[in-house]
Amino acid sequence: MDLKVSLPKINQYTFTFRKSEPSKNNILEKSPQQDTFEMSVGYFNDLHGQTNNMLRILSGLKGDLKFSGGDNGIGDEKNKAVNNAVIKFMNLAGINGSALGNHELDTKQNDFVDTVSKFNGNYFAVNLKQDLSEEDDHAELNNALKRSAVVEVNGEKVGVVGATPIDLLARVTHPSYHRDCYVEDLDDTIEEIQKEIDALKEQGVNKIFLLSHMGLDTDKIAAQKLDGVDVIIGGHTHELIKDIKEGENLLYSKSGEPVIITEAGKNGNYFGKLNLTFDKDGVIVRAQNNLGKTSLFDKNMINQYIINEILGAPEEVGYIKEVVAPPSSLIEENAHANFMCDAMKYELDTDIAVWNNSGTRSYFKPGVIDTRDIKDIAPFEDRISVADVSEKKLVDYFKHAIENTYRSQGNKPGLLAVSGMNYTVDPKAGKLVGMNFVDNDGNEHKIDVENPREDKSYKVVMDSFMMFDGADLDVLSPKEECVNYPFNKDFLACEYIKHLDEPVVINQTGRIKFV
Question: Are 354 and 463 in contact (CB under 8 A)?
Answer without folding.
Answer: no
